[in-house]
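User: Please predict the structure of the protein below. I'd like the answer in structure-token form so I can feed it into my own downstream comparison script.

Assistant: Understood. Taking the following sequence of 331 residues as input:
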Amino acid sequence: MICNICIIFKGGIAVFRDTHNITERGEKMDLISIGVSDEIDQVYERLTLELDVLSKQGIDVCINQRHQGSILFLDCSVSGDLMDNYSYNDIVYVSKHYIANAISNIIIDFWEMKILRKIVDSNYYYFSPQERERILAFAGKTLGAEENYKGEGCIYRLSRKARVLQKILDYLDCNSKIIIDGFVRFRMRDYIAELEDAVDRAVEEYLMEREYNEFIKLLRYFVEIQEPKVDTVNILKNVDGSYKLLDGQGHTINSELLDDLGGEVSDSSINYDDLLISSLITLAPSRIVFHSVTAVPGNEILDTIKKVFHQKVAICHGCDMCYMKKPLEKE
């Protein structure tokens, strides 16, 4: 037995506690009690995985389940025998960090999406169920919630998890019981506000996507009602970012209408991509061939034209035109 008295903190007040009973060999020393009302299996599994890692450090934490109303409490404790090898403070400190890490993972991996869904359903109830699911998907991408998601979203997720972890550690400094639902709702208002902001931005992204899709439908309609003015259009990109359009015989495509469109470039903010789409809508070709110079993966203009013209779009990865620095015009 190491000592008879230890100091614990509850609500910021120092309380002296007789530890004689909890440090006897074979007795249990209570650490932290975790209350959950939902996602119970996932919470238990994540907590167990974290405590298995702690066990490899020589500290075996037992979990006892008990119900109190609608809440299931997972009571974490260790054997008093550990006091032979570790001090009380060391056991509490190390165990608290492992348990706090498990709780932070539980909040980020399970509670976060539930909270997002509640925010969407409450603040944006006027969208259809399908639209709300799309908004959730955008919010999840922003927060790095997608499986195997990499990039800024992943970094943001790790940063958010670190802040949640610190909040839990601060709380457990003064408390030995935590109910996850209540903790998130009442102790993490900044976190909730952060998720609300993510949903608001997701709604903006969704509205932009919806507007874009409606624009694509309109362009598709214009193409469908027109008779093709040329059979094939070959697209090559010039050094200055402009495009050169050649017909199936390799001749440069010229028309008064296209010349008028070209004149608009210098008179307004229309860029070359906009001009290319306008030209293709005007020509309504039966076949469009992007040559390797312009067929770059993730190319937005290429993706847009594919959506408008569907199966009419082809990509050439190697021909005489592909390797021309300046496409030769056939007379």
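That's the full token string. The CA atoms of residues 46 and 102 lie 6 Å apart.
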